[in-house]
Amino acid sequence: MVIGLHRNLVGRLVQVASIVALTPAFAAENPEFAPEQITFFEERVRPVLAENCYQCHTGAKAESGLRLDRRAGWLNGSDYRAVVVAGRPEESLVVKAVRHSAPNLVKPMPGKGGKLDEEAIRDLERWITMGLPWPEEEAPPEDVDPREHWSFQPLVPREIPAGEGHPVDRFLDRSRLAAGVERAPRADRYTLYRRAHFDLIGLPPRYEEMQRFVDDPRSDDVVWAELVDHLLASPHYGERWARHWMDVARYSDTKGYEAGGRERRFVYSHTYRDWLIRSLNEGMPFDQFVLYQLAADQLVEDWNSHARWHLPAMGFLSLSKNGRQELILDDRIDTTFRGMMGLTVSCARCHDHKFDPVSTAEYYGLYGVFANSTDAVQPLIGEPGSGPDYEDYERRLAEKRKPVEEFLEPKLAELAKRHPELAGKTEALKARLDRADRRKLQNLQRVVDKFVADEMMEPDRALVLRDRATPVDQRVFIRGNPGRRGEVAPRRFLALGSDSPPEPFSEGSGRLEMAREIASPTNPLTARVIVNRVWMWHFGEGIVRTVSDFGLQGELPDHPELLDWMAKWFVENGWSLKELHRLILTSETWRQSSRNPRYADYHPLDPENRELWRFPRRRVDFEQMRDGVLATTEGLDATLFGPSVRILEAPYSNRRSVYAFIDRQNLNPVFRTFDFSNPQESTGKRPETTVPMQALFTLNSEFVQNHAASLAKRIAGKEDPVGALHRALFARDPSLSDRHMAESFLASFRSESAALGKRQTHHEWSYGYGGVDAETGEVAFTPLPVWTGDRWQASREYPVKNSPLSYLHLRKGSGHPGSDERHSLIYEWRAPGDMTIDIAGALQRPNEGKGDGVRGRIVTSRDGVVKDSLLPAEQTSVAMEAKGLTVREGDKVWFVIEPRETASFDSTQWSPEIAGTGSLSGFWSLAEQFSGPARPAGAWDAYAHALLNTNRFLFID
Fold first, then answer.
1. Which of 8, 578, 831, 946 gives the lowest tally of CB atoms within 10 Å of its CB?
2. Residue 283 in contact with residue 234, Cβ under 8 Å?
3. Other CB atoms closer than 10 Å to residue 279's CB: what's the count?
4. What is the mean pLDDT of residues 738-752?
C-alpha cells in the first residue's frame, strides 16, 4: 500500500473541485428525481393512486378541486387547504386521511369506506419523504395523431445527398451548412489510434504498436481501415460492447432483496454475460441477437447439442429483479420494449398510455406472453468438473442436499398418490405443497443454494424460461390492481401505427412470435433504436437523445434522414453491428479533431454540438479507467469468460471490469461515484458527472496506488525512467515541458516527504486506542500495531488474555473497545489543510438490551470535546454529528468509543464522514478509506500515481 501523495504536490497535476451541499428543492416546479425514485413511484405508488384516488380526483371536475393525477395537483392542494408537505409526511394531511386519524375531514381517504393496507400507507409516506417524485409529463398537441409519430412510420430508402465522400458525412455536411458551421479538421494519427482503442475494445494502446501506426508510410485511409478491422477482430471487442448491452439488460448477479434469508445470488448469471461476449465477437446479426435473448428455449431444438451455448441468452429476461409477480413481469416487459424498441410500454399498466398509441389491453396482452413463460429447470451447458477437489465438492454437496431429499421424498410420494396424473413430475408435485411445507422447503433449500453460490464449482447452466403447457390469456388488471380483473386481453403484438389490431399469437405463450415481430425488418423501431444506441456509444449522444424513448415524449432526431438511412442500410447489410461500426468509424465526422479552430464562432450557434462540428471530448468511464490502470501497469488478466469477481475488495482481482460482480440491492458506492448503470432497471444512457469523489477515489484508492507502485518498480533502473513512464501510460514520449514538470515534482516530493514522518496508513485516518482526560479534554492516542489483512488489533494474540486490551479491534467501521476507559477505541483524523468541517454519522450497537452500552465522543485538538453521547443498552443508535468546526492544517479530530462499567456486548459500528470547505475542500469517509498499513512511498511511486490522475490519462480526445 502506498502513502497518498501530499496534497500540495498532487494539486500541481490534479485539480479537485469543491463539494457543495445542496438542499433538495422538493417543491420546485420541475425538480430532478433519480431514476430509482421514479421507478418506486411507478411501481409502488401510482397503482395505489389509480385504484383509490383517480376516480374522484382527476381532471377539471376533480372533487373539492383536488387533482391527484399530476404532481402539481398534490402540491396545490384542494380548494380549502394544502394536503401534502413535500419531504415531511408527518405534517401531511393526506397521510392523516389515509390513516383515518383526521376527524375534521368530511370523509377519510380512500373514500370507499375502506382503508389502505399498512404497506401501501408506508409507500405513500416514503414517496412524500422523497419529495413526491413524478415523471416529467407534457400534454401532446391535441391536433396530433399519435399513430402519425415519426418513429412509427416505416423505414423508407433515403437518397444520399449529392457530392463526394462518405455517406454519413454527406448527410451531416448538408445539415452543418444550413447551421452555418463546418466540421473540424481530421485528428492526428496518435489521437485516432488511442480513441479507437478505447472506443472498440475499452483498453489503451501500447507504445510500440502506436509508433508503428503513426510511422506507417501508407495512406491514412488504408492504415485506418486495417486498424478498425484489427480491433473488431479482437476478443476484447466483445468484452467492451457486451458491457454496453448489459446496461440495457439491467445485468446483475443478484436478484435484489430476498426475505427469509433466501439466497440472493444468481449462481449462473455470468453465463448470460459470456454469451453476449461470444455473440458479439462472432458477429452475430442483431436480429438473431434479439431472437435468442427472447426465445432461445424454442430456437435451440436439442438442448444437448452444441447449440445449447445459446440458451444463456435468455438471461436478458431471467435476470430480472425479484418481487411480486406483477412487478417481475412488468420489469421484463419494460426491459424488452424500452431496450429493443425504445417504447415505454409499461406506462400502460394502470391506464392507456397518455402519449403513445399503447392501450392497457395491449399491455396485458404482452403481460400474458410473459405470464405464460415460467422459470424452468436450468439446463446444463458446461462440462462437469473432475479431480479430487471436485469429488470432494460433490461429497459435501450431497451432504447439504440430504435434508432436502429426506423432507421431500415422503411429501411427494403422498402427493403422487392423491394426484396420479402428476406421478414422476417433480416440479408439478412440488407446486402442490401447502404453504407450510413450501416454507420449510425454502428454508432447507437456501442452505444448498448458499453452498453452491459460495463454492462456484458447479458446471455452467443457463437461466431459461419455458412456455406453460396450456397457455391462457391474461385479464386486464383494472387500474393496475391484480385483485380487480377486467376483460380478457388476447396475447398479440402492438398495433402502433396500424388501424387494425394484429392477429393473436397462436404458438404457445407467443414469446417467439413476439420476438420475431420485434426483430422483423418491417418493424419501424428496432433498427432505428439499435443504430441510435451504437451512435450514442460512439459519440456520447444519440441522434435521438432519449435513446430508450422513441415515443411522443422522446426528443426528435437531430438528423432524421441520416438515422433512417443508416437504419435501412443496417438491415440491408445483414443487421451486422461490426459493419455498422466500420460505417461510423470510417466517416470524417468520427475522425475529426475535438478542437475546432473556429470554436468561438460555432459555439454560440450550436452550444450542444448537435451538428457534430467537433468530436466530443469524453472522460473515460469506470471500466475504461480501471482496465486502463491494469493494462498500462501490465497487471491485466486477459482471460475471457467465467464467474463474476468482486473487483473493489482486497485482494483485488486483475480481471477486466466487465467481469465485476454486480449486486442489484447493494451496489458498491464506487460504481455510483463513477456513473455506473443502475442494475435495478434498463439504462439507455449513463449519466455523466464530474464530482470530487472521483478524484478522491483515484487519489486514495489502494488499488490505484498499488499499481502505480508496481509500474514504478518496473521502470526502476531504466536509463530514462520519465520516458518509460510516459510511454507506458500514454503510449507516447514525454515533451520537454513534461520532463521539466517531472523533475520539479520529484524534487519537491523528496524534500517534503522527508518531513512527513512515519504514518500508520496512506491517508488522513489512523486507528488506535487510549482515553480522554476528564479535566482537560486531551486525548491520549496509541496507534494499533497489528494488521491482520482485514482488521487492526492490539496484538497478534486475539483476544489478549488477562489484559484490558482484550477484544479491542477495528474492522472497516465496526469494532470493539477495550475493557476500561483508558483503552477506548479511537479513530484519529488529521486535517490536511485549513477548512471548516461538518461531521456526520451514527454510533450503533447491534446487541440491543445486552451489556450496559457505550459512550461516544468527538474531540478536536483545537476545541476539546465537541460531542459527548451515551448509547445505553436498550438503544441501538445515537447520532454523532458536529457542524461548522474550524480546523487548521495538522489539527486532529478523534472519534472515541468508550466502554462503561462492563465491556461485554460492546461491539459497535461507527463510520464517521467529514465534509470540508476552505483552502482544501474534500470529503473523508472512514468506511470508504479504511485500509491497512502504509509503506513509505518512493518519489517514483508518487510520480506514477500522479500521472494516473491526470486528464491526459482519464480523458479521450
1. 8
2. no
3. 23
4. 89
